[in-house]
Each structure stands twice: as structure tokens, then as C-alpha cells.
Specification:
alpha/beta; Aspartate Aminotransferase, domain 2; binds pyridoxal-5'-phosphate
Length: 394
């Protein structure tokens, strides 16, 4: 009997023992304020569907219409089979929406990062990376072969110090930070980071995955929020969060985008997203450009929920956005809290080490524009009940 795969059983057993085994819940409904999860109807606070676009009638209709005209698949990679005008249209529309020169789309936000970073830096180069940056940034940095000094989270002074220490020791340099950090819902002082990039003539990239559709005028993202148009070289983004679909994008300086069309490996060696994805994303951009109503509702919901949680006595951490962490400390407490919320028909995820530091376990509440006042009130009641049962609040 071959033993060569026994190590997997041991590793999985180990994950279960330390409580890191992921058991994935099965949904049998569209994304929205309410879900059917494992057959049970629950209030949803887990998704990144900030604006409800994942199940928007206009996006669905646009996808259906585009399929009539273009069918489903792109056939092959764009550099070989040619590119559909639909994909080009999406790139022009997202660049205009973000008020930048140009954009290139990818299969996902994850691949956008693994495309862009190794195209910009390589051996002998340097990436100054926020210590809490997303896994796809970390993987992109590793693929590049550059050296990767990490700086203290969202701290321009620490970044400046590291930049000065490394001066003269590299060929090209790049600063990378997440826009909104998804575990805490905070964002860095991008204006200060931009000043450092300009002072030391470094390229600057921000990953706006949780900022698009949320921050800035009508959801134009973190660069728009800080009014830094033309000063941040690269905005990486995703269509899988507020846009409600799937796909990645790199937007910004036209020279960089042109370079990525030549040298972004996932662009050259992996096919583009399908026709309905592109059409639905275009509809999402239409909806965002027509009105700020959904973005305004998202922020109003978040302000209401957060204020009520604070007055109940909960600690909502560092959040500056609709991502609302409920700080609980020990991971066992966070898990029990999440389990009891679920029996109250509230679906909200517990996060513990290694996703967040030891001792900073939490429930992460993802607020959406789809939640009604009544939904939020029902959730607040459940949080109050479970919080008192478990002695978290008085
Ligand atoms: C979700 C996320 C991504 C990945 O986006 P996908 O399109 O889902 O692959 C990249 N970066 C950050 C910061 C994210 O939060």
C-alpha cells in the first residue's frame, strides 16, 4: 500500500485539532441581505456584496442580453484569439469611472496582483510592503524576486524610515499598500504615503479591492477619496466585491497599463473572464455612475449599526468603513459568539489566528446597502442577547 499521501491525512487532522479546518457552508439562494444557508434562512453579514449588485436585476438582464450577442466564452487568451470589444469597453469604462488614464482587466483581483507586481519589479529591485497586505500582494511580491522589506501597518513614518535605510541599495522601487484593510476596516493615510513615493521617486500601488464602490465620490475608490488622481501609479481592483461579479483590474498610468498588455503573465497565458461577467460589470458601472444612492445607503447603514453597537457596549476596533469588526479577544469566544448568532438566524463569521493576530479574535460584520433598517435592528437584538449571555457586554 502506497503511503505517499498519508501526510495529507495527518496535516488535515492537525488542522482540525488546532481549530483551523475550514468547513464551508452551502448556499442555495442568491447573495443578498438574507440567505438560505444549509437549508436555513439567515441574515447575511458575511459577503463583500456591499451594494447588492451580485443579484441586481439590471446586471442580470445585461448579462443575458450580452450572451445573445457574444455567447459565453472568450475562446482563448486575448493576445492570440483577439479581444472582444466588450472587454475593451469595460477597460475604458472602468478607467473613466476611476478617473485615470487607462486600465487592463484580469481574471480576478488575485491574478491582477500576481500580474502587476512581477511586471514592475524583479531581481535587484525592492518592494516596500505594508505588514498587513493581502495574500495576493504577498504572492505577487514573492513571484517578482524583489526584496520585500515590510513596514509597520499604515504608518508613513515607519515607511519613510525604511525607505531612507534602503536608499541606493536597489535598482527600481515600489511601495504597495492595501486600500481598505478587510480585517479591521481601516485604511492608510494614502496622501502621506504618496508624498514619500514622490520624494524618493518610487512607484506607488494601492490595492483598492474593498475601497471600490465604497470610498470616494459614488464609490470611485481610495484614490478619489484622497483626491490623488494622477499621483498614484497603479490601482489594483476587483469586480468580485462591490461590483458583485468577478474579475480583476489594474488601472492608472497609461505607460504601466501598456507594459502589462505586453508583460502581465496572467494576461498573456490565461483567458479573459466570460461575456456575462463583463456585461454585468458594465451594468454595475452604469448603476454607480447614475446615482450615489446605493453607496450613500451603505454608509448610512454602517453608521447606524456601528453607533448602536457602541452604545450597547461593544468594541468595534479601528474601523473607518462599513466593515465592522466586533472585537472579542479569544478565538474560542469569537467562535461561540458566531455559533450562537447563527441559532438566532444571524450569519456572521468569527475570525481568529492566523487571519488576525492572537488575542484579537473577532466577529466581522459586513454591512451592505441591501440591509433594511429592520434587518439591522434584528441583528442588533441578536448581538445584544448573545453579548449578554456570554458576558461580553453588561
Ligand atoms: C479580495 C481581495 C483580492 C482578491 O480579489 P478577487 O477578485 O476575489 O481575486 C485582492 N486584494 C484584496 C485586498 C482583497 O481584499
Amino acid at each position: 500500500m502506497s503511503k505517499k499521501l498519508n501526510w495529507i491525512d495527518e496535516e488535515l487532522q492537525n488542522l482540525q485539532e488546532v481549530g483551523l479546518y475550514n468547513k464551508i457552508r452551502t448556499l442555495s439562494s442568491p447573495q443578498g441581505a438574507w440567505l438560505v444557508v444549509d437549508g436555513k434562512r439567515v441574515l447575511n453579514f458575511c459577503s463583500n456584496n456591499y451594494l447588492g449588485l451580485a443579484n441586481h436585476p439590471r446586471a442580470i438582464a445585461a448579462a443575458q442580453e450580452a450572451m445573445q450577442q457574444y455567447g459565453l466564452g472568450p475562446g482563448a487568451v486575448r493576445t492570440i484569439a483577439g479581444t472582444m470589444d466588450l472587454h475593451l469597453q469595460l477597460e475604458q469604462r472602468i478607467a473613466a469611472f476611476k478617473r485615470v488614464e487607462d486600465a487592463i482587466t484580469f481574471q480576478s483581483g488575485f491574478t491582477a496582483n500576481t500580474a502587476a507586481i512581477p511586471a514592475l519589479v524583479g531581481k535587484g529591485d525592492i518592494v516596500f510592503s505594508d505588514e498587513l497586505n493581502h495574500a495576493s500582494i504577498i504572492d505577487g511580491c514573492r513571484l517578482s524576486g524583489a526584496t520585500i522589506p515590510r513596514y509597520k501597518h499604515a504608518d508613513p513614518q515607519a515607511l519613510g524610515k525604511t525607505v531612507r535605510e534602503e536608499e541606493g541599495h536597489y535598482r527600481r522601487g515600489l511601495i504597495i499598500t492595501d486600500g481598505v484593510f478587510s480585517m479591521d476596516g481601516d485604511y492608510p493615510p494614502l496622501d502621506k504615503i504618496t508624498e514619500i513615493a514622490e520624494t524618493y521617486d518610487l512607484m506607488l500601488m494601492v490595492d483598492d479591492a474593498h475601497g471600490e464602490g465604497v470610498l470616494g465620490e459614488g464609490g470611485r475608490g481610495i484614490v478619489d477619496h484622497f483626491k490623488l488622481h494622477g499621483r498614484v501609479d497603479v490601482e489594483e481592483g476587483t469586480f468580485s466585491k462591490a461590483f458583485g461579479v468577478v474579475g480583476g483590474v489594474v488601472a492608472g498610468n497609461a505607460r504601466i497599463i501598456e507594459w502589462l498588455r505586453q508583460r502581465g503573465r496572467p494576461f498573456l497565458f490565461s483567458s479573459a473572464v466570460t461575456v456575462p461577467d463583463v456585461a454585468a460589470t458594465l451594468a454595475a458601472i452604469d448603476i454607480l455612475e447614475e446615482s450615489t444612492e446605493l453607496v450613500d445607503k451603505l454608509w448610512a447603514n454602517a453608521a447606524f449599526f456601528k453607533a448602536e453597537m457602541l452604545s450597547l457596549g461593544f468594541d468595534t476596533g479601528l474601523t473607518m468603513t462599513p466593515i465592522t469588526p466586533v472585537m472579542l479577544g479569544e478565538v474560542t469566544l469569537a467562535r461561540e459568539f458566531s455559533r450562537r448568532l447563527y441559532t438566532e438566524n444571524v450569519f456572521a463569521m468569527a475570525l481568529g489566528f492566523p487571519t488576525v493576530p492572537v488575542g484579537l479574535a473577532r466577529i466581522r460584520v459586513m454591512i451592505s446597502a441591501t440591509h433594511s433598517k429592520g434587518d439591522l435592528e434584528q441583528a442588533l437584538e441578536a448581538f445584544a442577547k448573545v453579548g449578554r449571555e456570554l458576558g461580553v457586554i453588561g
